[in-house]
TrEMBL record:
Superkingdom: Eukaryota
Compartments reported by the entry: Membrane
Region Disordered: start-end pairs: 173-213
Main location (coarse class): membrane
Acidic residues composition bias: residue spans: 175-188
Flavoprotein found in the keyword field: no
Protein name according to UniProt: Auxin efflux carrier
Membrane disposition: Multi-pass membrane protein
Signal peptide boundaries: none
Length: 430
């Protein structure tokens, strides 16, 4: 028994260290000026807006069938449950202990995408998931299911982080406002560049590839649609505007990707042509589905590398500024909830649901993934939220140091992995 626990712990620790090394590679890329803050933001943006939706389309669509679609309902409920409970804990802690406002989103939104996806991929090579395989199951199939489970959880988290995040930080702007401003500036630059072209100047990388007639028609249509939309918006009541704003913030590219994946998976003819082998009618699998799968796989590693770049840039800012030290009360509270309290609670709750009820599917990988979902370091989006909320330099440096410490402590997730593994094994025997 002791040797089995030690072997599982070493396997989980190896998987966690591999993630930490990928983060370290991002730090090295920043230190040697291969990537900087601006480039990492662009990479992160393309990861969220293109690579993650592609990953959701292929993973969720491939795993989702008309007769197995209900397997994701417990994940949706569980994800919503632990996020809202974390928000409640954070708001209560801020009120009772006078913690800073960033404690609430730090508790509510953990890294639910790149970190757990890379972790479960690393576990494939440690062999510790073999005991969770059912009859006819393979490690590769189990890993694929686990990835789809984490992606559905990430869908809920990403939808709420853009809708609730700024409000939890009492922000007046949206998390993506800075990006929108960049896009507006880019549009202005495109317009200027296009104007220069019309005046006979050389093209550059900002020049639109559309013909001038098409571009002018598009600009007129967008301007007219914007005016009509503003008139309609101004006629709405403040409450209606608030509801529509919340729904608009919740809609994002990952959500669209997940909806497309669900449609492709649940509609049998679409599932056949997109995900079946060519000899079984999968006319799109070899080229279209595979292309989406390839760019989707870029998300997992690139996003973790960006974490390293962001942490390195943040540490450099801390080094240049005045270091007033960490607020250890709120820092230890965040780390305690993320790495101790939620792991214990989630493992116990999932074990009870798997053994005492019929609410969960008879899939040990599902139990294992659900036990891991509420755990781990806060999401890096916290930095962006602090940036757009008008937080002071000291507060932003504090958040950066908390995130650095949280990701440095990510090997502690090995303990959660072992706990979830043995709880799942115990549930099988029941």
């Amino acid at each position: 028994m002791a040797s089995g626990v030690l072997q599982s712990l070493l396997g989980a620790l190896q998987a966690s260290i591999s993630i930490l090394l990928v983060i370290f590679y991002g730090v090295l890329a920043n230190q040697y000026k291969l990537l900087d803050g601006a480039s990492s933001k662009k990479i992160s943006k393309v990861c969220v807006h293109m690579f993650l939706p592609a990953l959701l389309i292929t993973k969720v669509g491939n795993e989702l069938h008309a007769d197995t679609g209900t397997r994701y309902i417990p994940i949706l409920i569980w994800s919503l449950f632990f996020i809202l409970v974390s928000v409640g804990i954070g708001l209560l802690a801020v009120k009772l202990f006078k913690f800073p406002a960033y404690v609430t989103p730090a508790l509510a939104f953990n890294n639910t995408t790149s970190l757990p996806l890379l972790l479960i991929e690393s576990l494939e090579f440690t062999g510790i998931l073999d005991n969770l395989l059912t009859d006819g199951d393979t490690v590769s199939k189990a890993i694929s299911r686990g990835e789809s489970y984490f992606l559905v959880c990430a869908l809920v988290s990403n939808s709420l982080v853009f809708a609730l995040g700024p409000r939890l930080l009492a922000a007046d702007k949206e998390p993506e406002q800075e990006d929108h401003d960049d896009e507006d500036d880019e549009a202005e630059q495109n317009g200027a560049a296009n104007g220069d072209v019309e005046q006979g100047e050389d093209d550059d990388e900002q020049t639109s590839l559309l013909p001038n007639r098409v571009r002018k028609t598009q600009d007129k249509f967008q301007a007219r649609a914007s005016r009509l939309g503003k008139r309609f918006w101004d006629k709405l009541s403040p409450r209606t505007q608030g509801v529509l704003s919340f729904l608009s913030d919740s809609a994002n590219p990952p959500l669209i990707g997940a909806v497309l994946g669900a449609i492709l998976g649940l509609v049998p003819p679409l599932h056949r042509v997109f995900f079946n082998d060519s000899e079984e009618g999968g006319i799109f699998k070899a080229w279209l589905t595979q292309s989406l799968s390839k760019i989707g796989q870029l998300f997992v590693t690139l996003q973790v590398v960006v974490v390293g770049v962001s942490l390195s840039a943040s540490l450099r800012k801390v080094k240049r500024g005045e270091d007033k030290g960490l607020p250890w009360g709120s820092t230890l509270f965040i780390l305690g909830i993320r790495f101790i309290i939620w792991p214990v609670l989630s493992i116990a709750i999932i074990w009870l649901l798997a053994t005492k009820t019929n609410l969960l599917r008879d899939d040990p990988i599902l139990w294992f993934a659900m036990a891991l979902m509420p755990t781990g370091p806060p999401a890096m989006i916290l930095v962006a939220m602090a940036e757009v909320s008008g937080a002071g330099e000291h507060e932003k440096m504090t958040i950066s140091k908390i995130l650095t410490l949280s990701y440095a402590a990510s090997p502690l997730m090995a303990l959660t992995v072992v706990g979830a593994l043995y709880a799942s094994q115990a549930a099988i025997s029941k």
